[in-house]
Amino acid sequence: MSQHNAKQAQFVQPQKKKNLPVIFGAALGLTALVLLAWNILGSESGRYPTIKAVQGQVVISAAEVSDGKAHFFTYRNGDTNVNFLVVKSLDGQIRAAIDSCVVCYRGRMGYRQEGDYMVCNKCNRKFHTNLINDVQGGCNPVPLARLVNGGQVVIRESDLIQGAMYFSTNPL
């Protein structure tokens, strides 16, 4: 090797192999894994206070949900969170519904409240709170039977378990 070539070799770094395809593949794989985990666990996980059933019933203080605002709760059925809402409508009735509908349930996005309306977070349709439990089907909140007795809102655990199909990773 000539002196010139030896001097040049001293300052020239060996070319590194191109790792771009490996880095891109790893990033794509990680993104897919995160999205899969989010879908399996459901975006609703941990959003609302978890409520437990006692002797086959979930009991909520009527005073707690009588302010005209929708109150969201989660009932845990095995490994599935069942979200539901309780709201006192303008007509003075305490109403309850699964936080889902038969049309948009696969999106697992539920509802939000805007004034006296519940709005589907997936399709943005509005439903007056006075109609919860009275109107069924379509994008209306899935009715949840409830009994208001002695200052308590009582919901049967079996009805919440039935509502789990709207939140399951293998729905309907």
Helix and strand topology:
Elements: H1 3-11, H2 20-41, E1 57-61, E2 71-77, E3 80-88, E4 94-98, E5 111-114, E6 117-120, E7 126-128, E8 142-143, E9 147-149, E10 152-156, H3 157-163
Antiparallel strand pairs: 1-10, 2-3, 3-4, 4-8, 5-6, 6-7, 9-10
What does this structure look like?
The chain is α+β, with helices and mostly antiparallel strands and 172 residues long. The protein folds into two domains: 3-41; 57-166, Rieske [2Fe-2S] iron-sulphur domain (Rieske Iron-sulfur Protein). It has helices spanning 3-11, 20-41, 157-163, and strands at 57-61, 71-77, 80-88, 94-98, 111-114, 117-120, 126-128, 142-143, 147-149, 152-156. Strands 2-3-4-8 form a four-stranded antiparallel sheet. Strands 1-10-9 form a three-stranded antiparallel sheet. Strands 5-6-7 form a three-stranded antiparallel sheet, with no helix packed on it. Strand 2 (71-77) and strand 3 form a beta hairpin. The longest helix has 22 residues, at 20-41. It is elongated, with a radius of gyration of 26 Å. The model is unreliable at 38-45 (pLDDT under 50).
Compact overview of the structure:
With 172 residues, this protein is α+β, with helices and mostly antiparallel strands.
